[in-house]
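quick q for whoever's on today - can somebody do inverse folding on this one?? i tried earlier but teh output was garbage lol. tokens:
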């Protein structure tokens, strides 16, 4: 769950970029001792960095930045699947296709 707003994330990104961590590879390689190099870092910044690293690894950076979580994606996917099955049941001649995966 993304509990940080875009403004907080942007401020943290500015801090890490200014500290030389300006590529995905460099961000993924941030270690605990590297946090000392980041000026005026807060505990919120540290948590954002943790979630940022996870988003980069999981290739969900846009979802992280937008606050659109996997939970929201799953709910929408479930709703769509439910609607497709409902439509298929009302149209018995049409086979159910499951091409969401």
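ok took a stab at it. sequence:
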């Amino acid at each position: 769950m993304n509990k940080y707003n875009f403004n907080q994330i942007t401020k943290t990104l500015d801090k890490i970029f200014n500290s030389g961590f300006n590529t995905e590879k460099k961000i993924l390689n941030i270690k605990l001792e590297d946090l000392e190099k980041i000026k005026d870092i807060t505990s919120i910044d540290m948590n954002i960095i943790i979630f940022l690293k996870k988003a980069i690894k999981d290739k969900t950076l846009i979802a992280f930045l937008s606050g659109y979580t996997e939970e929201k994606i799953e709910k929408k996917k479930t709703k769509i699947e439910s609607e497709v099955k409902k439509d298929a049941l009302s149209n018995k001649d049409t086979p159910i296709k499951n091409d969401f995966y």
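fwiw The first helix runs from residue 6 to 18. also The chain is about 60% helix and 0% strand. so keep that in mind when u check it
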